[in-house]
């Protein structure tokens, strides 16, 4: 298990022994979001430094960064079920509130779509990888169709009011 912190670190824990395994350092500001690849071998982190970092979970080794990923704090991350796409969202307070899709193989931004008025607090990809749900501080959940190969998102139906969202 991993936990991001305001002190710019990520702490990896052994859930069986409750012992700290390692501390990952590299962000230059607080860590606000984490996402694990489906195979559990890659950890993605985003934070107030507007950067997304990629880590190897086995040894905590830093692999690469998506510098300047957003113009504001990276507050939400989610990985597609096949592990090929990382989605990121921004707070909207100190920069954009966009949602971006990144190819995990090369770190290139595949597409960007407008976020929500109060930024993005959470992203969840449907188990079949065809829909992306975003939750915002405005109390709304927006569902978007993920269209592979078209470099676009299409908003699905109505927005839903929420209190909280879980996977």
- Global mean pLDDT: 83
**Arrangement of strands in the largest sheet:** 4-5-6-7
Percent in helix: under 10%
* Contiguous runs where pLDDT drops below 50 for at least 5 residues: 161-167
- Total E-strand runs: 15
What is the CATH T-level topology? Methylamine Dehydrogenase, Chain H
Number of helical segments? 0
Beta-strand residue percentage: over 45%
Q: Describe the largest sheet.
A: 4 strands, antiparallel
Name of the CATH homologous superfamily: YVTN repeat-like/Quinoprotein amine dehydrogenase
SSE run: EEEEEEEEEEEEEEE
Instruction: Specify Rg, calculated over alpha carbons.
Output: 15 Å
What report would you give on this structure?
This protein is mostly beta strands and 167 residues long. It has a single domain (33-161), classed as 7 Propeller (Methylamine Dehydrogenase, Chain H), CATH 2.130.10. The protein is 0% helix and 52% strand. The chain has a four-stranded antiparallel beta sheet with strand order 4-5-6-7, with no helix packed on it. Strand 1 and strand 2 (9-14) form a beta hairpin. The chain is globular and about 40 Å long. The two termini are 17 Å apart.
Give structural attributes.
167 residues; 0% helix; Methylamine Dehydrogenase, Chain H; 15 strands; mainly beta; WD40_rpt; four-stranded antiparallel β-sheet
Précis, in short:
It contains no helices and 15 strands.
Topology:
Elements: E1 2-4, E2 9-14, E3 19-25, E4 31-36, E5 42-47, E6 52-56, E7 62-66, E8 74-79, E9 85-90, E10 99-103, E11 109-113, E12 122-125, E13 131-135, E14 140-147, E15 152-161
Antiparallel strand pairs: 1-2, 2-3, 4-5, 5-6, 6-7, 8-9, 9-10, 10-11, 12-13, 13-14, 14-15
């Amino acid at each position: 298990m991993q936990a991001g912190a305001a002190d710019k670190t990520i702490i990896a824990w052994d859930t069986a022994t409750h012992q700290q395994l390692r501390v990952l350092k590299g962000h230059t500001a607080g860590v606000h979001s984490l996402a694990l690849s489906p195979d559990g071998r890659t950890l993605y982190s985003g934070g107030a430094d507007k950067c997304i970092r990629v880590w190897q979970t086995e040894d905590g080794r830093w692999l690469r960064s998506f510098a300047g990923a957003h113009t504001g704090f990276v507050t939400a991350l989610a990985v597609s079920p096949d592990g090929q796409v990382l989605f990121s969202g921004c707070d909207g307070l100190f920069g954009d509130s966009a949602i971006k899709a990144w190819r995990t193989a090369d770190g290139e931004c595949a597409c960007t779509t407008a976020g929500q008025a109060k930024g993005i607090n959470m992203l969840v990809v449907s188990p079949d990888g065809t829909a992306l749900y975003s939750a915002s501080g405005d109390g709304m959940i927006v569902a978007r169709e993920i269209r592979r190969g078209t470099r676009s998102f299409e908003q699905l139906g109505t927005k839903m009011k929420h209190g909280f969202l879980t996977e």
